[in-house]
Specification:
11 helices
Amino acid sequence: MSDAIRIFSHAISMVFRDLGATLRATWVGVALVTLSVVALIASAPASFGTLITQSFDTDAVIPNVGLVVAAFLLMAIGYLTMVAAWHRYVLLPQDQRSGGFTPSAGIVLGYLGRSILLGLLMMLLAIPVFIPVGIIAAATNSVLVSAIASIPAIAILIWVFLRLSLILPACTIHHDMKIRASWDATKELSGTIAMLTIIMALADFLINQVLGLLPLASILSGVVSVVISVLYALVSASVLTTLYGIAVEGRDV
């Protein structure tokens, strides 16, 4: 557990110990996310909070659907660019940093393709993993109990994801790593990653509970949700980067 706590603490420290450096490394992606938020507020101000938190009901009417879709696509590109830039900032050696950290379109597309592949694998795995959660939810009819029951299921998915996803930071520095190679590279860290998944699942649960306390329909709640999402995405990327550094490059935390 101590190694997992050390990795997670290190990931948080990497993001927050020098926010200025973090923003300088990831500013293009952050700017795209910010622009997408502005576009969403401008195109659907009354629905912005519910759009961001995905809490609208089936009868909700979303104005300017084309602009909303375009804004969400821009947001997705922003997140990919931001996370890829962060991997590059941490992993690129000093003599390769002169070109900056903003990834090329090819790197972003490669990151997207690998993310989709991992997402499909996680979706397939989620079907059997979440069957017990569904049974508990149906038996108790309690949102809180269902949320608590989902923690181990989320932990399993995160554990597998972390074992496979070293291919993501690898592609940002032109290392064409295969999924099997990622699984093999993390074999000796599997126990640490198991503890790390528990920490990340609990963190995700707590963040969702905090966000659930915000007023769903307000613009402020939507903005807060995006800011927290951006920061947690960077922390999660730092976890991947740290694992890549340990498992592939032989770094210490």
